[in-house]
Structures are given as structure tokens and as C-alpha cells.
Amino acid sequence: MRFGPLQKALFGASDGTYSAVTDREHYDSQITLTGNEVELAEKYFGNTIHIGRVSDNPAAAAKEFRLYPTGERISLNLVYPKEDKPELRLYISATAGFKPEGGQVWFLARKGGDLWIGGLDGNHWKSLAAGDPRDTDYQEAIHSTNPSPEIREVEVSGRTYARNPALGRECLKRARYQCEFDAGIGLFTARATGLPYVEVHHFIPLACQGYFDESLDCLENLIALSPHWHRAIHYASITETIPVVERLFVGRSELAAKFDVTLEDMLRFYQCEAIDQ
Ligand SMILES: [Zn+2]
User: Cα separation of 126 and 189, whole Å?
Assistant: First the structure.
């Protein structure tokens, strides 16, 4: 599967692919590349990929990769084992430094002039985009007694994005201080405002900004959520996150139109998509 905007932002990559490692691939110590993986590897290595068995020409079979996350340069064999090139095969090896387990997600990422390779636990992969280190700061600005709180910045993968608390307040007003996922959920009263305490969330994560021309810090992209469901959309399991994203996306035609996004895109922004093998 090809990297979407979120994965590109997370890895600082211009392109990339990912798929699940099967038990068989782990056991056989070889991965047959498919679709986008073949395309990416062929584009990077050009016509230097050896045709034939590794043992026929070990020097030509060995290719250099940068190992995620350390950046260590490792050498793995990558060849077309058969003359007519129907398959492109990568040999994984613990000795060489890369031997993902069955069930892990392995990926190739084009970053600068290098091709990175890595393997992560399924849960680790799905949690990569979770959390928001500056969120408390942003919610505090929205709920402060200051009538015009200053714009707060958040840094994602080395880039800084602005979040305007005044827009957040607009969003809460529009939602009539109710949670947009569960209007009936119990809310406490915010001390500073005397109003029900609801938080503001950027539905398309700011990490994806690089993919869009228009600012993601806009009313169309803001949703009001109770503290419970706000934490859930950041940290809940995939099975619990999917229905939240689905229901919140229904009726958001302005968001869909402005950013040209589908429900499928939205689920990918939350790393909720099913991962092909
Ligand atoms: Zn949030």
C-alpha cells in the first residue's frame, strides 16, 4: 500500500509503501514485492537490480538500505530470481539487520537520496500518529478567560503549524457546547467560562497539512468533542476509533468538499485502514 499524506509526514518521506509481513515470508526469509513496492524499488535502484539467483552474483544482488529508526546502512539481497522478471524478491536476514516477524508491518520509504526500510509491530504502527503533545496548551487557550488568546503553534515532524484558539471558540459555539459524537454525554462546567467543557479537535490531523494547500486550522475542520471522545479519537483501539471517525464524517460535506477527502481518506489519517499482506 502506498504511503498517504500522514505516513509521508510521519516519516518525512517523499514516497513509501507498507504491508503486513506474513508468517510464511518470515519463515522463508524472503518477501516477494508487490504493486507499489516493486514500483518504488525499481524507481530507486533503476536497472541495477540483478536478474538471477543471489549466488550467481552476490555483489550485484546486495543493495543498500537505511534501517529505521537508527539510519544504519544495511545490505540486503534484492533480485529478480527469474529471467522474465515476474517477481522481485527481497531476502530478509537477522544477520544483515532486518528480519521482521510475521504480523509486523514492514515499509520502504524514500527519504532524501536514500531508501529506508523498517518493520514495526502492528499496534506500534497504528499508534504512530496518536497523541498531540501540545494539545493541553491549545485547549487551555480556548478555555482561558483571555478574550483574544494568542495563536498557539504545534510542531509535527519538524514543521510548525498554527492553531488559532479564537477559531476553536467559534467551533464550540457552533456546536452549542455539546459533544458532536455523543450529545448526551455528561459534561462538567468550565470554571473560566461557566459553559459546558468541550474540547476542540482538528478532524484532518495537522500532521497532514503538507498535503493540502488550504490551512487545516479552519472551522470546517474543527470538531467539538467531550474530553472522553477526544481522548478516544487519539488513543482508542482501531475497532473503537473507526465508528467515531465514520459517524463524525457523516454530514461534513463542507469539509469533504473543501479538502476533497473521502471517508477512506479520513480512516487512513487515523491509521485505521486494513493493511494488505
Ligand atoms: Zn485532538
Answer: 34
